[in-house]
Amino acid sequence: MKKENNDKKQKEGKKAKLIYIFLILLIILCIVLIVCLLRKEEKTLIPDYAPGTIDVNAIKEQDNSKKMEVSNGGGAVSISYSNIVEVNKKNKKIKMYFKNPSSSRESIILELLIINGEKEYLIGKTDLLPPGHALYKMNLDTDIKLSNGGYKGIFRTTYYSEETGEKEIVNSEIEISIEVK
User: Fold this and answer.
1) What pLDDT sits at residue 46?
2) 119 and 42 in contact (C-beta within 8 Å)?
């Protein structure tokens, strides 16, 4: 009888230990989930000076436009773009058109973002796009799973002085449509 009581107590003790271990693992899992959900997305820092490399997808295009005139200490930018962008998930390529004409006095770094509610998702970013260069494609640079369909998006431009390479005060965001296939 004592042996049966000891066996029962040992079984109950083992059950209690398993329950405690399960509860501890459940608490750890909850903490990890809360930390993951509350973690804020890090914004990409924008350099104060332009990177030295011209984007690999940038194509030099001849146009006969004259440099825009600027007042002392000012800048001037002229851009051409298509407001429809196509993303091919299979080959991870982005088909688009964005040009920094020769008349511009600023170089550009272009970011392509998808807007979903209050969140922005960076899906592509160029190196330097100097005046007289155009982009017809970018590489899809994201691990975000995109479903087929249409998205709101923006081209975000950061301008850099062609003479000094220093980041300019003025930047812009251009609303576009993004079609994912």
Assistant:
1) 63
2) no
- Do the Cβ atoms of 111 and 123 come closer than 8 Å? no
Vertex 176: Cα angle to 172 and 181 (nearest 5): 140
Other beta carbons within 10 Å of 54 = 15
Give 50's DSSP letter: -
Q: How far apart (Å, rounded) are the C-alpha atoms in residues 108 and 105? A: 10
**CA 145 → CA 71, 148, 175, distances in Å?**
46, 10, 22
Are 94 and 113 within 8 A, CB to CB? no
Q: 14 by DSSP, 3-state: which?
A: helix
CB half-sphere exposure, 47, CA atoms < 13 A: 13
Residue 106 has pLDDT above 80, yes or no: yes
